[in-house]
Amino acid sequence: KLLYIKDESTNPTGTHKDRMAWEVILQARRNNWTEISLISSGGAAAAIQHLLNLYQLPIKLKVLVDQNINRDIYEQLTAMGCEVFLHNLKKEVLYSEAIKDLTKNKSGVDITYRTTMDSHNLIYYDWLSYEILNFNPDYCILPFGTGDLFINILNTVEREVSNHDLQVKERDRRFMGSIEHIRQCTFIGVRTVSSSSRMDKLFSAFLPTLIPYRQKLDRLKLTGAINKQSSIIELESDDHLEEALAIAKSSDIKTEPSGIAGLAFLLGNKNNIPSSSKVLIIN
Fold first, then answer.
1. Torsion angle defined by CA atoms of residues 149, 210, 258 and 205, in that order, rounded to the nearest 10 degrees
2. Ordered DSSP codes for 88-130
3. How far apart are CA 30 and CA 25, in angstroms?
4. Of 40, 108, 227, 265, which is most buried by a Cβ count within 10 Å?
5. Are 184 and 227 in contact (CB under 8 A)?
6. Going by DSSP bridges, is the β-strand pair 186-192/83-87 parallel, antiparallel, or unpaired?
7. What confidence tens digit (pLDDT) does each residue in 144-159 have?
8. Of the candidates 65, 177, 101, which has an alpha carbon nearest to the alpha carbon of residue 132?
9. Residue 99 in contact with residue 64, Cβ under 8 Å?
């Protein structure tokens, strides 16, 4: 197998969330937001607050975290300038109004589920999606936390396949991949169903977007836009995680358990993937 790792740890705060944070900052400045709320396990909040600090923007970031969050993460977010609120996130589904209420946000917005910022799931990770598709992988395996990156890749695939089939003349110039290769690509999102997993950023007791994301995936498989083996995988254990972390360390790749979940999945399923495959793991 030809194994490649697209390493998002080289971004300013160490994750692909920096790409999303840039879009949040642009939107906040356009609309004069003064308060922003979101549920976060740490990465998204850190990325947004980093840019708020960098550009010295007078916007309060109000972060709702699980009451059992790692203390170091809690303290780091607070030190950066986030207003952090603890809550039992395993108790119930929380929607925007409840999130704003719990974070004492009276006049601002909640961006937890993207509806305020990116209702069509197009902009958060658009450049990253094109970078991935232009690589023409046979398999693309990535962590599935909120699922934002996974669904943006699928939406980009849908748009480019449709433009190709309809012979649209004005297409996005960022796309330089092969449509036929995309149709054969297997996209796998990796999440965990274990609340005790070390891949804690890939666990969610309630994820309202999961059902529509699965429906989108199934539609693209039925139309032949992507390989029928594409799926959202739910891991029940942390098998092969230590091996994945060791491989990343030996290759000087900065990561943590959630970020390298795609490689852990691959190690446990390598016999099910043809030896000639070009496999792209997103860290």
1. 150
2. -TTSS---HHHHHHHTT-SSSEE-TTSTTT-TTS-STTHHHHH
3. 9
4. 40
5. yes
6. unpaired
7. 999 999 999 999 999 9
8. 177
9. yes
